[in-house]
């Protein structure tokens, strides 16, 4: 997101020619209501909706301005040059990010700088239906075209279109064949049974009947085999598409969602969609054809009788339509309960060690039971309701049969209808009411499938990481990393990093130090472009790193994370993760360099040892060394070490230190460590405090300066003296 | 230096938007931020008074143990720092397209909001207490669903 000068006409309409004009959603009393913040070159003003001026501060008096995050929202705080702090206006989270930008703008004006902020107008309501949008600037789900969604899912059928056409053709044939036996039966009754003679016709008709039964069965088998093929293929395609889309989502998405909820989109949601596509759509055709075909036949036989026996159908349709909405709501609720159930199940199984360690089996079971019962209750309620409605529809269907006997029977008595014709109509009745019931049920099936499709497309349409595969440049990194006025917050209204400026020269080792929560990991997250700066830029070799193709960039960056993650596989596979074509020799060499070789050799299966899910079968220090080996083999130009030695003993730390020493040579390295001694090899240290750089320099310079860093070192060596070891702090300080 | 307690402190705004605290007329902490330790499960209890470095100066066990003046001052500050809303009545609630749309009346007035993925963003605290987190992370608390009118309860029942 590039900052750009704002154009007042882009913000809310303004008559005063203000540079910034924002409407807050809370009154001074704390009630919901609107107030306006107006900023021009002279002053900052707060206006009530009736035009009354509540506060005004001359820009010239302002020292700084910021969004003070409070629970549920924020407030704009201005500090005057006299040091007086003033709270100007409060607002909810909905617009906090915009006020945070406005605060920046006020500061820029106060410093006499050019106004460079990004205040795009936000769309919170749908323009068409005025509904609230489920996502700011997002799409309105009510106004997206259902037909379009249907077309989009249908597109997954495209690669199998010939199969689909074959399926439709077979469905048509089945319909036609289903119409024949009642005709045969009718003729049998009229021309054989009632006349008590005519064996040849009996055999003839039975012969045709057998032929039709055989053909029908063959067609059904073929059809079901095609369905199986289509189901498998389309399900696989859908899962692959969704998984691929999820892979490229920005990390901010994963911060917000639970992993269980994401994986259910790959499984449950895709299941619903392919189920409907493959089993729903063909039957839709089949039953639709059946309805039309059979009705036509009925009317052709006897229009009056047809009219009578079809009379209950409108009632059935009315019931289906009337109860459709409440039913979907109830099934939605069941879905909710399932999700809660799964989340708890996943969590307690993942945390089974903790559960056992605290002997919490009983209370976990209690929780489980609660979820289980909730699920049961919601399920029973929804199903009972469903079966009630279904039963009512069944009654009206059977009414059709009764009417048939009443009206048709009378007609047979009056000889207006032969017995054979009556029988045929009676047989067709079942062929009509079957599909009608199916259509009543499909409604709910359809809406579930559409909800699944919506959730799938939500992911597919979501903003992806800016891979810019087409226009990103390929750049072989030399290693200069330049932070220029970088500002970043996980939540835009609350920056975690502010005004970060530094240049790391190629091959330099930079140590990042600071208290917990200072923003060290955040800084390296930005370097790896897991997140992008909200403003300012990061340049690599003088090139804005957003210009470089993302995967190309990341291939040249190696990371050893604070909590190394290993995949369930062998040690060798994990080391070779970043370089699939690595030879065994290279892997061993990398492991040696990471001081991991010896412990690997002691495993029964050596490099073929399985590490378990998340690498759980290795110790913390072993995992860390495997992940260092992985980084070494990856051979990155920029190396990032976040607490690479946090969970090991002093001896192992020394080994890892050596490994790192070998690894950093010739690469730009960013290392984070709480044991400051770990960083004594660093060329320069950057000291962060609450998101700002407070000191930069070599170890010696910073010790001499007697600032924040030397204080950190002092407290740490004191603590280390107390616990009885000193990690060469003394030499380092010399 | 004496330690602050609920009895020996005096809270006031000076200047008008900054909360200050003097301890037994001996010394003064110039910037105080009140934080509830457990605003949902233990409302009115366990109020932390934090200094500008984010360190706790005093944990007040119950707000009503403070003097009347202190209570008034602290309430004013709390009103500014807790912009959460308490739901008094649900005017409408409907599930559409996987999101739930709510219109509620809170102590701050009427408000519409949307909650997505209800299983994460409707958080139960115990059996009867419920917090909705809308798409912008605004919070709407229902302290006790049994205290809502039947119509509002029906909305919750039909969805959750
Ligand atoms: N994914 C996230 N979403 C929201 N906030 C986050 C996220 N990650 C970190 N934070 C917050 O950002 C701030 C800086 O975190 P960061 O991880 O950069 O700290 P750090 O300096 O690495 O600390 P430590 O030494 O404990 O690892 C913290 O206040 C933290 O709570
Ligand atoms: Mg960290």
Description:
The complex is a heterodimer of chains A (734) and B (160). Chain A has 734 residues and is α+β, with helices and mostly antiparallel strands. Helices cover 54% and strands 15% of the residues of chain A. Chain A has 21 helices and 17 strands. In chain A, the strands form 4 sheets. In chain A, strands 13-14-15-10-16-17 form a 6-stranded mixed β-sheet, with helices on both faces. In chain A, helix 10 packs antiparallel against helix 11 and helix 17 (620-634) runs parallel beside helix 18 (650-664). Chain A is elongated and about 120 Å long. Chain B is α+β, with helices and mostly antiparallel strands and 160 residues long. Chain B folds into 2 domains: 9-81; 85-159. Helix content of chain B is 18%, strand content 44%. Chain B is built from 3 helices and 12 strands; from the N terminus they run ββββββαβββαβββα. A 6-stranded mixed β-sheet of chain B has the order 9-8-7-12-11-10. The longest helix of chain B has 14 residues, at 68-81. The radius of gyration of chain B is 19 Å and the shape is elongated. The A-B interface holds A 26, 30-33, 70-73, 75, 77, 84-87, 90, 92-94, 131-136, 141-142, 257-258, 261, 328-330, 332-333, 336, 339-340, 343, 451, 454-455, 458, 491 and B 15-18, 39, 79-85, 94-99, 101, 106, 108-114, 116-120, 135-139, 158-160. Bound molecules: adenosine-5'-triphosphate and magnesium ion. Magnesium ion binds next to helix 12 of chain A.
């Amino acid at each position: 997101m590039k900052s750009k000068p704002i154009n007042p006409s882009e913000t809310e309409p303004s008559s005063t020619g203000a540079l910034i004009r924002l409407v807050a959603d809370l009154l001074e009393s704390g009630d919901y209501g609107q107030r306006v913040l107006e900023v021009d070159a002279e002053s900052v003003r707060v206006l009530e909706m009736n035009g009354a001026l509540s506060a005004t501060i001359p820009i010239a008096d302002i020292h700084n301005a910021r969004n003070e995050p409070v629970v549920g929202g924020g407030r704009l705080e201005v500090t005057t040059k006299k040091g007086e702090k003033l709270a100007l206006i409060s607002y909810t989270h909905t617009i906090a990010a915009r006020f945070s930008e406005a605060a920046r703008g006020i500061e820029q004006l106060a410093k006499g700088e050019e106004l460079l902020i990004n205040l795009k107008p936000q769309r919170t309501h749908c323009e068409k239906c005025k509904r609230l949008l489920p996502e700011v600037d997002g799409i309105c789900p009510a106004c997206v075209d259902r037909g379009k969604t249907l077309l989009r899912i249908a597109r997954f059928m495209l690669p199998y279109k010939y199969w689909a056409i074959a399926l439709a053709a077979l469905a048509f044939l089945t319909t036609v064949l289903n119409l024949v036996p009642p005709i045969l039966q009718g003729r049998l009754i009229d021309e054989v049974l009632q006349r008590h003679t005519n064996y040849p016709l009996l055999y003839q008709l039975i012969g045709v009947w057998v032929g039709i039964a055989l053909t029908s069965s063959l067609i059904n088998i073929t059809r079901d085999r095609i369905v199986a093929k289509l189901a498998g293929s389309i399900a696989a395609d859908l899962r692959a598409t969704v998984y691929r889309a999820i892979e490229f989502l920005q990390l901010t998405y994963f911060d917000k969602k639970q992993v269980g909820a994401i994986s259910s989109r790959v499984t449950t949601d895709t299941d619903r969609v392919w189920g409907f596509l493959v089993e729903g759509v063909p039957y839709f055709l089949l039953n639709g054809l059946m309805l039309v075909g059979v009705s036509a036949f009925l009317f052709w036989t006897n229009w009056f009788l047809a009219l009578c026996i079809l009379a209950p159908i409108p009632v059935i349709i009315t019931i289906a339509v009337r109860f459709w909405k409440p039913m979907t709501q109830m099934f939605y609720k069941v879905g909710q309960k399932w999700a809660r159930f799964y989340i708890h199940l996943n969590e307690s199984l993942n945390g089974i060690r903790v559960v056992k360690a605290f002997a919490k089996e009983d209370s976990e079971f209690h929780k489980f039971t609660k979820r289980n019962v909730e699920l049961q209750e919601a399920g029973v309620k929804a199903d009972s309701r469903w079966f009630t409605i279904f039963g009512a529809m069944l009654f009206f269907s059977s009414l059709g049969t009764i009417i048939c006997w009443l009206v048709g029977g009378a007609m047979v008595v009056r000889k207006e209808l032969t017995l054979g014709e009556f029988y045929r109509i009676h047989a067709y009745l079942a062929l009509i009411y079957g599909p009608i019931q199916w259509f009543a049920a499909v409604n709910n099936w359809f809406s579930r499938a559409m909800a699944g499709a919506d959730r799938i497309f939500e992911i597919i349409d979501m903003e992806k990481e800016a891979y810019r595969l087409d226009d990103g440049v390929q750049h072989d990194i030399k290693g200069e990393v330049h932070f220029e006025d970088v500002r970043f917050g996980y939540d835009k209204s609350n920056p975690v990093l502010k005004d970060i400026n530094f240049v790391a020269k190629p091959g330099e080792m930079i140590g990042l130090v600071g208290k917990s929560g200072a923003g060290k990991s955040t800084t390296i997250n930005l370097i790896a472009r897991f997140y992008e700066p909200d403003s300012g830029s990061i340049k690599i070799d003088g090139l804005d790193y957003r210009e470089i193709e993302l995967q190309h960039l990341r291939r040249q960056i190696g990371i050893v994370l604070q909590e190394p993650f290993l995949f369930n596989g062998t040690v060798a596979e994990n080391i070779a993760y970043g370089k699939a074509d690595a030879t065994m020799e290279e892997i061993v060499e990398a492991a040696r360099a990471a001081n991991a070789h010896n412990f690997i050799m002691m495993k029964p299966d050596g490099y073929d040892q399985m590490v378990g899910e998340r690498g759980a079968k290795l110790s913390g220090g072993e995992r860390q060394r495997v992940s260092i080996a992985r980084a070494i083999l990856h051979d990155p130009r920029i190396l990032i070490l976040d607490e690479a030695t946090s969970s090991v003993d002093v001896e192992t730390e020394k080994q890892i230190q050596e490994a790192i020493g070998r690894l950093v040579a010739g690469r730009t390295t960013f290392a984070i460590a709480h044991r400051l001694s770990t960083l004594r090899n660093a060329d320069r240290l950057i000291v962060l405090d609450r998101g700002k750089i407070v000191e930069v320099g070599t170890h010696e310079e910073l010790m001499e300066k007697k600032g924040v860093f030397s204080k950190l070192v002092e407290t740490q060596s004191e603590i280390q003296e107390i616990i009885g070891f000193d990690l060469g702090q003394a030499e380092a300080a010399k | 230096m004496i330690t602050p307690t609920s009895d020996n402190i005096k809270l006031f705004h000076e200047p008008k938007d900054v909360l200050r605290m003097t301890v037994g007329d001996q010394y003064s902490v110039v910037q105080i931020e009140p934080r509830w330790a457990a605003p949902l499960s233990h409302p009115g209890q366990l109020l932390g008074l934090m200094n500008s470095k984010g360190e706790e100066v005093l944990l007040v066990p119950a707000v009503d143990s403070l003097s009347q003046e202190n209570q008034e001052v602290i309430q004013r500050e709390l009103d500014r720092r807790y912009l959460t809303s308490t739901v008094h009545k649900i005017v409408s609630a409907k599930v559409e397209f996987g999101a739930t749309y709510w219109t509620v009346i809170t102590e701050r007035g009427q408000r519409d909001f949307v909650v997505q993925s209800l299983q994460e963003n409707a958080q139960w605290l115990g059996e009867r207490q419920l917090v909705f987190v809308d798409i912008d992370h605004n919070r709407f608390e229902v302290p006790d669903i049994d205290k809502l009118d039947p119509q509002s309860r029906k909305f919750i029942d039909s969805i959750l």
